[in-house]
């Protein structure tokens, strides 16, 4: 049996005595689209921060295809194939969407290739392809900071996809956007995911989104995993209904 | 863009005839270009959102390196001096930068200031090595084995400085268009995202810092052989402040900005001293206030805006 793409083993971390991860273990299989749900402050984003090296666990290990990556810097983990899109989109706001994307594409080579221009044909073609895939072609030359929230979310996801990651981490991809936009964003995202054959983990508050798109859902509560399994089953679990669904 | 390049070509041609048309300006412009190199270095760091109030130390390091080489090794070729000073300053910049680029905002500015003042103190106190506050005299260098008179050398130096300015400006434009150049600006906008793209902000800044130090060193070496004397004052903090002012005044939107700022400041300074010996500071201050109030993008912004207007007007004419 092949090993999981990502494996977290006995992760523990606390902030001011409040545990955001309490001896948590979980695995993500290749090709899976795993959702993490839970109340605000339960430790969902902290888990993403632990996986991407933004913070270090007090104890426990994170493995990427069997290789321990605990304590590595975010840039090293990114180079190993874990890309992240943020709850608040992290863009180079004074540059165009295309420039953002070109820099992301160039960063796969480490940006150290001398004085060759960033806007070279090979990068431009790849950028055009990604912009088309994420439905951002019409906004390619807009300054990233001037876009509405939904488009900035998509642009942020596009930057992560440009890294050609093995695992994509998405922190609330539909938060802060209108009810009309969220399904449109998810459809675009899922289309890109299928096209690229990606594995993804996404933190989400919207149960409709989780039910419709996730292969598996994991319920995070007070730093522990309360339940996990198929969305249709987990979302009916009375404990989940009481702690998460009822308040989400 | 064509209009902009035409403007720069015209300005370059105007500078090139200065030794014949206005010889009194030749020395002023040589020093302005020398300081312009250092200001370009400062502007590069400003693009990353970092203000260095200590870059005069690299200007001084370049100047003293040139002086040491001439006085201690006997090598006095201009090009050897310029290349060696640039390389030595780049190494010093890399060593100092490895520590300093870990810091941001006021901490970066203050640490640069602190290191530069330590450097200034060493230059002032190590009399046996540096000549103390008297500094060191720099004899007129040879040029490719030829011994020239001081006047002849100054003309050659002016054209070398002018050519180097054009080369550095060209390379600088290419650098800013490169992924690394974009990454420098990206540090200012969103360092977190840059790290999550797998790029080390520390490495990017260290390269930028080393380049900026090397440019300041080149400028310092040109100043040393032009003035013929190096002093600890080259490294004093007011000189560092002057470089920041030059970069901001010229504008950091393009590589030409700091050179424009430097030439503008040196000319205003020279004219102000000549016109009102006791009030030149007032004239300088008033000029700076006018530029800061009315040209937020610096003088470079004024140039690009003029070029854009001319382009638009031409486009309108062609359409009608």
UniProtKB/TrEMBL annotation, chain A:
Q: What is this protein called?
A: ATP-binding cassette domain-containing protein
Molecular function per GO: ATP binding; ATP hydrolysis activity; L-isoleucine transmembrane transporter activity; L-phenylalanine transmembrane transporter activity; L-valine transmembrane transporter activity
Q: Which organism is it from?
A: Devosia marina
A cellular-component GO term for this protein: plasma membrane
Recite the UniProt keywords alphabetically.
ATP-binding, Nucleotide-binding, Transport
An individual GO BP term: L-valine import across plasma membrane
Q: Which residues form the ABC transporter domain?
A: 6-247
Automatic annotation (TrEMBL), chain B:
User: Record's GO cellular component, any one?
Assistant: plasma membrane
Domain of life (superkingdom): Bacteria
Q: What Gene Ontology terms describe what this protein does at the molecular function level?
A: branched-chain amino acid transmembrane transporter activity
One Pfam family named in its UniProt record = BPD_transp_2
The keyword DNA repair is annotated on this UniProt entry:
no
Q: Please list every transmembrane segment annotated in the UniProt record, as residue ranges.
A: 44-71, 78-100, 106-127, 156-176, 206-231, 243-267, 279-303
Name listed for the protein in its UniProt record: Branched-chain amino acid ABC transporter permease
Q: Which organism is it from?
A: Devosia marina
């Amino acid at each position: 049996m092949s090993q999981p793409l990502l494996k977290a083993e006995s992760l523990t971390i606390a902030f001011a005595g409040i545990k955001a991860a309490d001896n948590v273990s979980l695995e993500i299989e290749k090709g899976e689209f795993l959702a993490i749900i839970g109340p605000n402050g339960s430790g969902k984003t902290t888990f993403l921060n632990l996986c991407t090296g933004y913070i270090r666990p007090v104890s426990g290990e994170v493995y990427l295809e069997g290789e321990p990556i605990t304590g590595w810097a975010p840039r090293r983990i990114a180079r190993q194939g874990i890309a992240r899109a943020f709850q608040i989109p992290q863009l180079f706001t004074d540059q165009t969407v295309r420039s953002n994307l070109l820099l992301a594409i160039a960063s796969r080579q480490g940006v150290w290739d001398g004085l060759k221009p960033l806007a070279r044909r090979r990068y431009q073609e790849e950028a055009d392809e990604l912009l088309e895939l994420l439905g951002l072609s019409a906004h390619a030359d807009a300054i990233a900071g001037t876009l509405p929230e939904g488009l900035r979310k998509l642009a942020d996801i596009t930057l992560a996809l440009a890294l050609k990651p093995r695992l994509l981490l998405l922190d609330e991809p539909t938060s802060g956007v209108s009810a009309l936009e969220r399904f449109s964003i998810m459809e675009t995202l899922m289309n890109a995911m299928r096209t690229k054959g990606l594995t993804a983990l996404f933190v989400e508050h919207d149960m409709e989104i989780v039910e419709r798109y996730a292969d598996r859902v994991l319920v995070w509560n007070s730093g522990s995993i309360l339940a996990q399994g198929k969305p249709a089953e987990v979302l009916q679990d009375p404990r989940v209904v009481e702690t998460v669904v009822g308040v989400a | 863009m064509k209009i902009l390049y035409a403007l720069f070509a015209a300005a370059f041609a105007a500078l090139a005839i200065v030794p014949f048309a206005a010889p009194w300006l030749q020395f002023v412009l040589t020093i302005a270009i020398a300081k312009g190199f250092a200001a370009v270095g400062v502007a590069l760091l400003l693009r990353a959102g970092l203000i260095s109030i200590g870059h005069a130390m690299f200007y001084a390091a370049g100047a003293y390196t040139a002086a040491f080489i001439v006085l201690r090794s006997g090598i006095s070729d201009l090009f050897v001096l310029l290349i060696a000073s640039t390389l030595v300053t780049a190494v010093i910049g890399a060593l100092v930068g490895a520590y300093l680029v870990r810091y941001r905002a006021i901490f970066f500015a203050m640490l640069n200031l602190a290191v530069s003042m330590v450097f200034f103190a060493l230059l002032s106190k190590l009399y046996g090595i540096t000549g103390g506050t008297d500094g060191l005299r720099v004899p007129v260098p040879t040029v490719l084995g030829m011994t020239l008179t001081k006047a002849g050398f100054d003309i050659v130096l002016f054209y070398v400085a002018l050519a180097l300015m054009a080369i550095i400006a060209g390379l600088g434009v290419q650098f800013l268009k490169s992924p690394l150049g974009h990454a420098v600006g990206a540090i200012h906008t969103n360092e977190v995202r840059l790290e999550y793209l797998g790029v080390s902000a520390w490495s990017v800044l260290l390269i930028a810092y080393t380049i900026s130090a090397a440019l300041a060193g080149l400028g310092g070496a040109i100043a040393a052989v032009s003035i013929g004397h190096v002093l600890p004052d080259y490294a004093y903090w007011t000189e560092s402040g002057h470089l920041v002012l030059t970069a901001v005044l010229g504008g950091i939107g393009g590589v030409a900005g700091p050179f424009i700022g430097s030439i503008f400041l040196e000319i205003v300074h020279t004219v102000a001293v000549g016109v009102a010996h006791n009030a030149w500071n007032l004239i300088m201050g008033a000029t700076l206030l006018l530029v800061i109030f009315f040209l937020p993008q610096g003088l470079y912004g004024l140039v690009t805006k003029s070029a854009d207007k001319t382009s638009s007007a031409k486009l309108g004419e062609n359409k009608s």
